[in-house]
Amino acid sequence: MSIISPSILSADLLNLQRDITEVEQGGADWHHVDVMDGHFVPNLSFGLPLISALKRQTSLPLDVHLMISNPEQMVPEYIKAGADLITFHVETAVHAHRLLQSIKEKCIKAGLAINPGTPLHSLEPLLSDVDMILVMSVNPGFGGQKFIPQTCERVSTLACRLKELGRFEDVIIQVDGGINTETIKKVYDSGARAFVAGSHIYGAKNRSQVIQKLKELTA
Ligand code: DX5
Ligand code: ZN
């Protein structure tokens, strides 16, 4: 089982409806929406109006990746706007445990993201409360960056820990950044089951073919 979540950050924003329809028909499982605030990450992207607009246009789950400071302040608004899965960064939340609970209370899936430079043990107290862990395979902020090879070891360490806790089947490990036909196999073998790909999918001439290939490699 694998989940392919194309990141609309690399779509043609002035033809977004056309682009999301194309990846849906090509077999995408989710739409990954990167929310950046110009503070936690050095870039700005989309916010609530785009999430609401997407919600009206698609029946695929919206996989919302919040790269924002003070996520506690904005999470309720993203839930109202139509997010199906909300991932915030462990580096950003003062009350991460409370925030995870408040997301799950609304019957939305709760994800926790971790930057490449943050020790994995910062996730430890929260492992029984998450639905998904997003292991960043680049430093967040931009599409089109190179996959950081140490991600594989981080994913397998996390997968082992989840197995020890009997939670490997319940918690999805997602990776985001530099995912392509070469890197996806490595992180899949390490234990990841959900894959964000922006430039590799939206930058391709034949997006369906790329999605199918990514699925075959993780079947
Ligand atoms: C990076 C974002 C990613 C980005 C991935 O901060 O979180 O979702 O869109 O882009 P690619 O697949 O091009 O590395
Ligand atoms: Zn992302």
Descriptive overview:
With 219 residues, the chain is an alpha/beta fold. It has one domain: TIM Barrel. It contains eight helices and eight strands. It has helices at 16-25, 48-57, 71-81, 96-105, 151-164, 183-190, 199-202, 207-217; strands at residues 3-6, 31-36, 62-67, 85-89, 109-114, 132-136, 172-176, 194-197. Strands 1-8-7-6-5-4-3-2 form an eight-stranded parallel sheet. Helix 3 links the parallel strand 3 (62-67) and strand 4. Helix 5 (151-164) packs parallel to helix 6. The longest helix has 14 residues, at 151-164. The chain is globular. The termini are close together. The structure holds D-xylitol-5-phosphate (DX5) and zinc ion. D-xylitol-5-phosphate binds at residues 7, 9-10, 32, 34, 65, 138, 140-145, 176-179, 196-200. Zinc ion (ZN) is lined by residues 7, 32, 34, 65, 176, 196.
